[in-house]
């Protein structure tokens, strides 16, 4: 917008989006979206979520919709700081399997993406099987 040397980081954008969603809620005209915002600024990782009514939080893992109710308990139990990418994908597949039991008509494909230090590694498309 203006070239004043300031830049917004993920935390500032998350705060702004929280205010936008809460303002729309107060006007009885909410935006019917849940937003997840993640980013890195000055080496600090950030991950936050804003609901359609302006409820917000930041955590090491977030989810929206039924994932917030069904997958987050699994993430709370099994997620840890030094989780490898492959273990993270296995955990994500476990969460998605639980969600697929809830809605078996949903798409059962998952394509994980590894984003590490300006390098993107796209993994192959995985199909989640219900056993």
TrEMBL record:
Pfam family, one: Proteasome
Coiled coil regions, renumbered to chain: none
Glycoprotein found in the keyword field: no
GO cellular component: proteasome core complex
Assigned keywords, A-Z: Proteasome
InterPro entries: Ntn_hydrolases_N, Proteasome_alpha, Proteasome_sua/b
A single GO BP: proteolysis involved in protein catabolic process
Protein name, UniProt field: Proteasome subunit beta type-4
Organism name: Lithocarpus litseifolius
């Amino acid at each position: 917008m203006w070239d004043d040397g300031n830049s917004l980081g993920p935390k500032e954008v998350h705060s702004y989006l929280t205010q936008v969603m809460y303002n729309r809620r107060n006007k009885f005209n909410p935006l019917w979206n849940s937003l997840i915002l993640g980013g890195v600024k000055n080496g600090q990782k950030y991950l936050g979520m804003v609901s359609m009514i302006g409820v917000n939080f930041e955590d090491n893992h977030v989810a929206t919709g039924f994932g917030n109710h069904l997958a987050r308990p699994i993430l709370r139990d099994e997620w840890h700081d030094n989780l490898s990418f492959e273990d993270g994908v296995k955990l994500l597949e476990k969460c998605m399997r639980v969600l697929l039991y809830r809605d078996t008509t949903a798409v059962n494909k998952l394509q994980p993406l590894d984003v590490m230090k300006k390098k993107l590694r796209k993994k192959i498309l995985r199909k989640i099987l219900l056993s």
